[in-house]
Amino acid sequence: DVFHVEGLWKGQRCRAYLKVQRQTGADIKREVEVLARLSRKNTPEVLEWSVAPTCWLLTKEAPGERLSTILGANEALESMNYLPQYGYELAVLHSLDIEVPAVEDRRFFHLPQEEHFLKWQLEDAARYLKNHKPEGESRTFVHGDFHYANLLWEEGQLSAILDWELAGRGIREFDMAWAVFRRPGQRFLGTWREVEAFLSGYAQTQTFSKRAFCWYYVLIAAWFFPMGDEKERG
């Protein structure tokens, strides 16, 4: 649970976000440890935290807005002005040499049960995923949740990266696919042209496997398919 708060910090008026751990998957202790190892201008400034008995984290409010607010309906694909930078920033993050533990296992890393594919008539996707699983994936430092709701932008630049609780050493291409997969109700990243713009930005500084990226993109799509309405499923 996250609360937008205002108060006094060292005698000055301050706006901040208070995150309180409600379930064990929200690993605030990991987030605090990762942020302590980062020295980047677009990471949240930690004010206070506690890891026992109730875990919570207080970070100073960062400048900027989410792309969902900036782009609105995205009727003219204004997102194309942001997506190369979006990909580039994730590539820079993946290049960081930070000593962190492996990411925690998540259901999204694995294939859904056979019943899931049958229920949603995704047999073609099931065959593709079973027959083309990539080997030797590149493992690096990853954010774990680098999608639009955790990114703030100001004057065309990425001003803040939020929510580091899933960060750790993980699979580069999964992190990339998770970043650009279109969530229900999202009005950008609904075209492959936009995805390619993200990938072109990423490729400016880091190499990756396009085959592995596409495999994880389809895997995430299989999990997300039941969400949203019929138009979004299509």
What is the topological layout?
Blueprint: E1 2-9, E2 12-20, H1 28-37, E3 46-50, E4 56-60, H2 67-71, H3 83-94, H4 114-119, H5 123-131, E5 139-142, E6 151-154, E7 157-161, E8 168-171, H6 172-180, H7 192-202, H8 210-224, H9 230-233
Antiparallel strand pairs: 1-2, 2-4, 3-4, 5-8, 6-7
Helix pairs in contact: 3-7, 5-8, 6-8
Explain this structure to me?
With 234 residues, the protein is α+β, with helices and mostly antiparallel strands. 35% of the residues lie in helices and 19% in strands. It has nine helices and eight strands. It has helices at 28-37, 67-71, 83-94, 114-119, 123-131, 172-180, 192-202, 210-224, 230-233, and strands at residues 2-9, 12-20, 46-50, 56-60, 139-142, 151-154, 157-161, 168-171. Strands 1-2-4-3 form a four-stranded antiparallel sheet. Helix 3 (83-94) packs across helix 7, helix 5 (123-131) runs antiparallel to helix 8 and helix 6 (172-180) crosses helix 8. The chain is globular, with a radius of gyration of 18 Å. The protein starts with a strand and ends with a helix.
What attributes characterize this protein structure?
234 residues, alpha+beta, four-stranded antiparallel beta sheet, two-stranded antiparallel ribbon, globular
The run of helices and strands is EEHEEHHHHEEEEHHHH
Terminal CA distance reads: 32 Å
**Overall pLDDT level:** 93
Spans where pLDDT lies below 50 across 5 or more residues: none
Q: How much of the polypeptide forms β-strand, as a percent range?
A: 15-25%
The total count of helices amounts to 9
Please state the structural category: alpha+beta
Q: Tell me how many strands there are.
A: 8
Lateral arrangement of strands in the main beta sheet: 1-2-4-3
| Rg (C-alpha, Å) | 18 Å
